[in-house]
Design brief:
The chain is an all-alpha fold and about 210 residues long. The protein contains nine helices and no strands. It holds the Pfam family TetR_N.
Length: about 210
């Protein structure tokens, strides 16, 4: 059996916004971005959505890039909580399969995939947003590698050596699914099924490397 020291439990991002008012502003900003698009929503639009004057809004966030960084920090916190049952499970791979299916549906029901597609595109031309997006992906990859280490009874370093590409592929597939256009439900469902099959195959490869007796 793997040692309890094989992995470390994920924890919330150290500088993520916890203040209730900030959280309310971010909820309003996410909604405004979803309605008007990332580039289409002005700081005035965001302030209005939050029920604040522009001047007061700037006291909390100086730019849209700062808002995106805060949204990503919150999403990292949510993802950390999602991984807790995986680390607590006697079968991390099976629990991960369940979590992935839940997240695919959840992301698409939230219908904010278009927003994250815009943000991802913006990250290519705005380094500060690119850094925040990169932090999210590397954090999720690291959580996956910790889960793989526990499942296979190997060290985190061994997991990173063996499974870095597996973890990156899963992140890429889940992210792509979240950004999938909503227009054709049949096509979307078929694509989801294909994505899940590939993820299952990837997890099967990881599980087959287990050294547990």
């Amino acid at each position: 059996m793997p040692s309890a020291d094989t992995v470390s439990l994920p924890h919330p991002a150290p500088d993520s916004p916890a203040d209730a008012r900030v959280s309310e502003i971010l909820v309003a900003a996410r909604q405004a971005f979803a309605e008007k698009g990332f580039d289409g929503a002005s700081m005035q639009d965001l302030a209005r959505a939050a029920g604040m004057s522009v001047g007061n809004f700037y006291r909390y966030f100086a730019s849209k890039a700062a808002i995106v960084q805060a949204l990503i920090a919150l999403d990292i916190e949510d993802m950390a909580r999602d991984f807790l049952p995986i680390f607590a499970s006697d079968d991390p791979i099976a629990t991960m399969r369940q979590q992935v299916r839940i997240k695919l549906v959840e992301h698409q029901c939230n219908k904010d995939g278009a927003l994250w597609a815009e943000i991802t595109a913006t990250a290519l031309r705005k380094p500060e947003i690119g850094v925040a997006c990169g932090l999210m992906e590397t954090t999720i990859v690291d959580y996956l590698l910790q889960a793989f280490a526990k499942a296979c009874g190997v060290s985190l370093e061994q997991s990173r050596t063996q499974f870095a590409a597996h973890a990156a592929l899963i992140v890429m597939l889940v992210k792509s699914s979240a950004m999938m256009p909503q227009k054709d439900e049949t096509v979307r469902n078929d694509l989801n099924a294909m994505i899940l099959r590939i993820i299952d195959q990837t997890l099967d490869e990881v599980g087959a490397s287990s050294v547990k007796g």
